[in-house]
Amino acid sequence: MLLNCNQKKTKLKTETQPKKELKTTQSKKKKDTINNYWALILDTISIKKEFKISDLKHTLELKTYSLNDSSIVRNLAQKGEPTYLDHSHKMVTDFKLLINSIVDKKQIDRTDFEKSLNPEFYAECNLSTTEIDSISGNLIYLNSSLAVPDTGNIWKVLYSIKIKDNQIGKIEIKETDYVGM
Description:
By secondary structure, this protein is mainly β. Helix content is 3%, strand content 54%. Strands 2-3-6-7 form a four-stranded antiparallel beta sheet, with no helix packed on it. A four-stranded antiparallel beta sheet has the order 8-9-10-11. The protein has a three-stranded mixed beta sheet with strand order 1-5-4, with no helix packed on it. Strand 8 and strand 9 (139-147) form a beta hairpin. It is elongated, with a radius of gyration of 33 Å. The model has no long low-confidence stretch (mean pLDDT 87).
C-alpha cells in the first residue's frame, strides 16, 4: 500500500467473519462389493434313448444346458472381508417324449430336488448332470448330480418318471446320496 504524505492517514478496517466450526461427521466405512460373473456356458449335453411300451416305439430326449442367467448367487467372503458375490448360471434339463407325432415336454432344475437335499447344500447348489439309468416298461429310472459350483460338494439323486397316457409323469425320488467334497 502506498500513502501520500499530504493525505490523512486512514485506518483500514478489515472485517473478519467469525470462523465457522467445521462439523466432522463420521461416516461408516462402506465396504466394497466384488461381483464375479461366470462366463457363458454354451455346451448342451444331449441323450437320446428309444424304447417300447406295448409295442409302441417311444423316444426320450434329454438336453441339459445353462440358462446363462447368473441367477445363483453365493457370498464367498469370510467374516470381516469385503463382500464377494459369485454369480453362476442355472442349469436345466429338458425332457422330450416322442411317440409317433405326439410330443410331451417337461423341464427340471434344482428346485425339483429341494425336499430331498440338505438345506445348506440346496441354497448354493446347481443341477450338474442328468442321465438315464434304465427303462423298465413305462418306468424311466434316472439320476441327476447337483453340485456347488467350483467345489467338489456333490449329491446324486436317483429318481423315476412314469410314462402314462403318452405323458411324462411326476418325479418320484428314490434315493439321495452324498458323492463327495
